[in-house]
Specification:
The complex is a heterodimer of chains A (305) and B (419). Chain A has 305 residues and is mainly alpha-helical. Chain A has a single domain, classed as Orthogonal Bundle (MetI-like fold), CATH 1.10.3720.10. Chain A has 13 helices and four strands. Chain B contains 18 helices and ten strands. In chain B, strands 1, 2, 3, 4, 5, 6, 7, 8, 9 and 10 form a ten-stranded mixed sheet that branches. The longest helix of chain B is centred in the first third of the chain and has 15 residues. The radius of gyration of chain B is 23 Å and the shape is globular. The chains are: A mainly alpha (305), B alpha/beta (419). Chains A and B meet through strand 4 of A and helix 4, helix 12 and helix 17 of B.
């Protein structure tokens, strides 16, 4: 008689803590949010309304205008990060990994420090720097004779969102820099040497040898930026308030959700519409991540050293 | 019973760091006014305790921004204090409807308050009152009296004089004519629209007509304040679009701006900060001889937790809060927060006296968006913030702003629906 394989209890035991904790603090709240969006408040408690809240969010002219405005702003916020933060991050990493650079540890630390600052500090510092009354920005522009270029950027509809996106870039440029830097350091020296033997040096070496090798890291950074930007809230809330002024020009999905869920000033919070927006955000992020996973990640070529 | 009393007393003892007698009843006051803690501990509570032995009070404030949320969860959990500081209108009305605030209509000191004073803490039909009104704030303009003397200006009484004064200050160039920014938006609505508006919509008359649906926000009296605000743009400081509320306060207290549209609550804050003489004038009327209206906004009241263990003592304290004695103590401790009590209160602060003197010559009203009209979505008050800021920045015309507000209101408020 063949020996029966014993049930391997230890697998379940080892998995249990993570599964339980993760379910309790991540999965359950996620599903209860989805569930919340299917109900509405009535005179006596709550009532199940199916997808009615989604119909309001996308069908009602006011709700949908606010939603699309927030989504559009969010896309622009993301675009600025992708076009400014990540290229600068890659550039800085390339410079830092150059063996001829002196004080590279100092630069690395200095550029990374804003990342560990709180949003509140960053928002407040930049608000002061850019203040038309007490800020140093008007004075510094004046010193180089460019006073005419100064505008109260955070108060102008056309500039406010871009200004905030650039502040956020300033804060977080250290993260892509570090990830790319690590990826660049992991490229074995023999590959670089082989390239040099073949006469590929300088920029051409970066474009043809290093960049293809760090593409997976760039992919990861893009997806982190995407998720981070679509969940963003703090910086806008700290510097522009929950109404995301001027005239909702800086309203992103996070602030829109906050205003709806918790209410603001005389407006009482509506957890059900709030959960509806949260679900829509979840869907957007899910779709974005899926596009990345199945459309890009699987096609990236990986190299084994 | 004895045990809970002892427990409460011990708790109070730890909080106060003093001793409490076991037989005393201790009442806890929930409030968002953490700025007032010394006033309560040094002035108000001792005054009541010495006259009423056996009742002790603890003032336990929460941060203003968290107050509504914290209070709601405490009330739901049954751990809230005996006395609840009431926000005006719907926030408190909801608590009353949920049975968490007690009905205080039968309190004898309620007779000391006018109907307008009580309206913020009543059911819509006025049948039940659930909080004792404490104070209101009055809107107006503060000005730098030294700067006015220097430039030979007198406080304006009419719209025309107002802009003449602003023009003169602007021509002189020493001072920023008016300190206001649009970054925080609420200044534009509260210190702008709600400040000057009552003169145009004729105070209570217009406010009630709007609630009844006989006037619309697109009617002339409601557009006129926006037309005025649109003219303010030229008199504000450079970069006012990014100027915040604290920026405006500093601009005025540092003596760099001549006029500051505001409310009486700033008096207590500004008095110790300014090195010049301050004056105040009420919102200018459209034409000389017009009846004047002021926003005398009911802001703060005190109610009773319906589940309190000591209803009798709590009611006793509330009777005292409704008395003339409390009104005098409170109004003098907090200049700029005016008692709503019908008996005239003797105040010391000259600026506070100036504000309150307008009650005699002008008709008082409350902020137009606070009662009933901000119950739906889109919320009229929040929309007004946005619209006022847009109008001042010049990105939306007064007519467009008014039309947008009206459409928003008509989308959910029955009496305003298509007629």
């Amino acid at each position: 008689m063949a020996r029966q394989r014993p049930i391997r209890w230890h697998i379940a035991v080892f998995l249990a803590p993570a599964v339980l904790v993760y379910s309790a603090i991540m999965i359950l709240p996620l599903f209860s949010t989805l569930n919340l969006s299917l109900f509405t408040r009535t005179a006596d408690g709550t009532a199940f309304v199916g997808l009615d809240n989604f119909r309001t969010l996308f069908g009602d002219p006011r709700w949908s205008a606010a939603f699309w405005n927030a989504l559009g702003n969010n896309l622009w916020f993301f675009a600025v990060h992708m076009l400014v933060q990540n290229p600068i991050g890659i550039l800085l990493a390339a410079l830092l990994s150059s063996p001829r650079l002196r004080f590279s540890a100092f630069y690395r630390t200095a550029i990374f420090i804003p990342t560990i600052l709180s949003f509140v500090v960053v928002g407040f510092i930049w608000k002061l720097i850019l203040s038309p009354l007490w800020g140093i920005a008007p004075g510094m522009l004046d010193m180089v004779g460019l006073k005419g270029l100064f505008a109260p950027w955070l108060g102008k509809e056309e500039y406010a969102l871009t200004t905030l996106a650039l502040i956020s870039v300033w804060q977080f440029v250290g993260i892509p820099m570090m990830l790319i830097y690590a990826a660049l350091l992991s490229i074995p020296d023999d590959i670089i040497e082989a390239a040099e033997m073949d006469g590929i040096t300088g920029w051409s070496q970066f474009w043809r040898i290093k960049l293809p090798l760090i593409l997976p890291a760039i992919g990861i950074i893009s997806i982190l930026t995407f998720v981070g930007n679509f969940n963003a809230f703090d910086l806008i809330y700290v510097s522009q308030g929950a109404l995301a002024g001027p005239n909702f020009a800086t309203d992103i999905l996070g602030t829109f959700l906050y205003r709806t869920f918790f209410g603001f000033q005389l407006q009482l919070g509506d957890p059900h519409m709030g959960a509806t927006i949260a679900t829509a955000m979840f869907g957007i992020i899910l779709v974005g991540v899926c596009i990345y996973l199945f459309g890009i990640q699987t096609r990236l070529r990986r190299y084994q050293f | 019973m004895k045990k809970t009393t002892l427990g409460l007393a011990l708790l109070a003892g730890t909080i106060l760091g003093g001793t409490a007698w076991a037989q005393d009843v201790t009442l806890t006051i929930e409030s968002w006014r953490n700025d007032d803690i010394t006033i309560w501990q040094d002035t108000l509570i001792p005054a009541f305790e010495s006259a009423n032995p056996g009742i002790k009070l603890v003032f336990a404030p929460t941060a203003p921004a968290d107050y509504n949320a914290v209070l709601n969860s405490k009330l739901d959990a049954g751990s809230a204090g005996d006395l609840i500081t009431c926000r005006p209108f719907d926030a408190s009305l909801e608590l009353f409807n949920k049975g968490q605030l007690a009905d205080l209509t039968s309190l004898s000191s309620m007779a000391n308050f006018s109907d307008v004073a009580k309206s913020a803490w009543q059911t819509d039909d006025g049948a039940a009152t659930f909080c004792v009104p404490m104070a209101s704030v009055i809107h107006g303009f503060l000005y730098n009296a030294d700067a006015f003397a220097e430039l030979g200006l007198t406080p304006p009484a009419t719209e025309e004089e107002f802009f003449a004064v602003l023009d003169k200050i602007k021509q002189d160039g020493t001072y920023v004519p008016m300190a206001m920014g649009t970054q925080d938006q609420w200044e534009a609505a509260t210190m702008g629209y709600q400040n000057i508006g009552p003169n145009y919509w004729k105070g209570e008359e217009g406010r009630k007509a709007l609630i009844a649906g006989t006037q619309k926000l697109t009617d002339e009296p409601w557009v006129a304040p926006f037309v005025q605000l649109a003219k303010w743009k030229d008199y504000l400081g450079d970069g006012f679009e990014a100027q915040t509320y604290p920026d405006s306060q500093n601009l005025f207290t540092l003596g760099r701006a001549a006029i500051y549209p505001t409310g009486s609550w700033e008096i207590g804050v500004f008095n110790p900060q300014v090195s010049f003489k301050m004056g105040a004038f009420p919102p200018p009327v459209p034409k000389a001889g017009d009846e004047c209206y002021i926003s005398d906004h009911t802001d703060i009241a005190l109610g009773m937790n319906a589940k309190t263990a000591h209803p009798e003592e709590t009611r006793k304290f509330l009777e005292w809060v409704g008395s003339a004695e409390f009104a005098t103590l409170y109004a003098n401790a907090l200049p700029g927060f005016f008692s709503l009590n019908s008996t005239a209160v003797e105040m010391q602060d000259p600026l506070a006296k100036e504000f309150v003197s307008w009650r005699e010559k002008c008709q008082p009203t409350i902020r137009s968006t606070y009662q009933i009209l901000s119950r739906g979505t889109p919320n009229l008050e929040n929309e007004t913030w946005n619209a006022s800021a847009n109008v001042i920045r010049g990105t939306e015309t007064p007519e467009d702003a008014a039309r947008r507000l009206q459409e928003g209101l008509a989308s959910w408020y029955e009496p305003q629906k298509a007629k």
